[in-house]
Amino acid sequence: MSRPDAPAAAQLPLALRYPPDQRFDGFVAAPAGALAQIEALALGHSADWLYLVGAPGSGKTHLALSACAASQAATRRSAYLPLAAAAGRMREALDALHDTPFIALDGLDLVAGRREDEVALFDFHNRARDAGIAVLYTARAAPDALPLVLPDLRSRLSQCPRIALAPLDDGGRRQVLRLRAKRRGLAIDEAAIDWLLRRVDRDLSSLARLLDRLDRASLAEQRRITVPFLRQVLGGETGQGTQ
Asked: Which of 164, 166, 94 is nearest to 135 (CA)?
């Protein structure tokens, strides 16, 4: 992949540090063999590019960031690019990744239909293949279901092995909360987890932000997270009062 004239890295929407919660060992209910496939790609042990597909909340971003963190931990440089943040300047963003061994491109559906961005993705795809760069794509839908305007890009994406992810049920969300609380050294009662799942926005991003907030409050007051503590901290924010 030849080196293009790239702007300063500070101008690009790249993740340089990966959140500690976003690791393979914190992912719940992965399809059989999926984590091994993704990790093999991230570490350079597989040449099969991958396409993760799933509805919002199914864990696509979690796995993309986990793969980047695994690559970096193995001293193999990686880059995570949320494509929505690069919309309108896709070529600039992708050209800056010309010598990165592993790249996760998250959210193809959010730029589908933007012809210039699609052309930049198509050109990048071909250059990266020739250069031996490993790429992980994510999207809410399969290539055939995306509103792409460039048939050649759809064809290239369709050649990637696909991993389908499903949103977590309440049991899965409960397990994620336990795992993330344990990683923080945070004591949380099972009744408190049940209470949260009945009363707050249950998408994983919202739950993660709420857990950060509760962690700070628990540390400040030196209290474990119980239902009375949740009522005190959240007050009337939960939409169902303090039942």
From this structure: 94
Is 55 found in the same domain as 137? yes
Say which amino acid occupies 136: L
Non-local (6+) Cβ contacts of 42 within 8 A are 67, 68, 70, 71, 74, 76, 78, 102, 134, 136
Residue 85 and residue 176 in one domain = no
Alpha-carbon distances of 151 from 70, 85, 147, rounded to whole Å: 33, 23, 10
Arithmetic mean of pLDDT, 86-114: 96
User: Does the pLDDT at position 18 exceed 80?
Assistant: no
Helix then strand count (H, E) for the chain reads 10, 5
Q: Which of 177, 231, 232 is nearest to 205 (CA)?
A: 177
Tell me the C-alpha distance between 57 and 28, whole Å: 12
- Domain for residue 16, yes or no? yes
Catalogue the E-assigned strands of 13-131. 50-54, 78-82, 102-106
Residue 3 lies in a domain: no
